[in-house]
């Protein structure tokens, strides 16, 4: 980021200097080009605050651009994002507010956010929680997501929460064996589960979640969607509740 910003600033300064000289840039003599290079270098060295301001402005612009693109993606992908048949839905299915979580069963921060999400869904009867498997942390995560997807066939709606929360709260690496152990502990039909895991629909559902993640420019977990906002990271209960409350109040995550 710093290097690219410095280059951008240097080019801007070079352009300003070039405007003061006759002819086109490709008509500069080697001596003129060398003089411009020295001027740019000396300016950056003697005015480091300018470089800092340029980097901050670029960072702010990049964040604003990314947020605008994400909000546009939320609107265009609202169907599969909020109402896909391949997702787990917890809480009130007709709720006025929806919280979507993209997670990975091996994500340390997802595990840390579990108490916050639990508190939100238990404390708000007018909230729907949508769980999106986003297995980006290796083969074990993919296998656990496949087991979880198959488990939803036997644990519809709120019944799936027991499986999800128990597996996410487990310690150590999570893979196929750990996910199957939770399923067995909860009394699922293991023969049916193993068969369902190989269903083409499981892959279709996971592919859909990954496609949505790409559209929303998600590069880490957990990532939440509430209202039109995409919230990256385990930001804590208060921030998530504030956005949910805003949706209840005015239909948007920020009133």
Structure description:
The protein is an alpha+beta fold and 255 residues long. The protein has two domains: 2-66, no CATH class; 78-250, 3-Layer(aba) Sandwich (Glutaredoxin), CATH 3.40.30.10. The protein is built from eleven helices and five strands, in the order ααααββαβαααααββα. It has helices spanning 2-19, 30-46, 48-76, 78-83, 108-123, 139-151, 159-168, 176-185, 190-197, 200-215, 237-250; strands at 88-91, 97-103, 127-133, 223-226, 229-232. Strands 1-3-2-4-5 form a five-stranded mixed β-sheet, with helices on both faces. Strand 2, helix 5 (108-123) and strand 3 (127-133) form a beta-alpha-beta unit. Helix 1 (2-19) packs across helix 2, helix 1 (2-19) packs across helix 3 (48-76) and helix 6 (139-151) crosses helix 10 (200-215). The chain is elongated and about 80 Å long. Residues 1-7 and 13-23 have low confidence and may be disordered.
In short:
The chain has 255 residues and is α+β, with helices and mostly antiparallel strands. The protein has helices spanning 2-19, 30-46, 48-76, 78-83, 108-123, 139-151, 159-168, 176-185, 190-197, 200-215, 237-250, and strands at 88-91, 97-103, 127-133, 223-226, 229-232.
What are the SSEs and their pairings?
Layout lengths: L1 H18 L10 H17 L1 H29 L1 H6 L4 E4 L5 E7 L4 H16 L3 E7 L5 H13 L7 H10 L7 H10 L4 H8 L2 H16 L7 E4 L2 E4 L4 H14 L5
Parallel strand pairs: 2-3
Antiparallel strand pairs: 1-3, 2-4, 4-5
Kindly give the count of domains.
2
What is the molecular shape?
Answer: elongated
Supply the helix-strand structural class: alpha+beta
Indicate the CATH topology of the largest domain. Glutaredoxin
Largest sheet: 5 strands, mixed
Q: What's the order of the H and E elements? A: HHHHEEHEHHHHHEEH
**Number of H- or I-type helical stretches:** 11
Based on DSSP secondary structure assignment, what is the total number of beta strands?
A: 5
Largest sheet: spatial strand order: 1-3-2-4-5
- pLDDT average, as an integer? 88
* Low confidence ranges: 1-7, 13-23
Task: Supply Rg.
Answer: 25 Å
CATH homologous superfamily title of the largest domain: Glutaredoxin
Query: Helical content, roughly?
Result: 55-70%
First and last CA, distance? 32 Å
- Which CATH architecture of the largest domain would you pick? 3-Layer(aba) Sandwich
Strand content: 5-15%
CATH class bucket of the largest domain: Alpha Beta
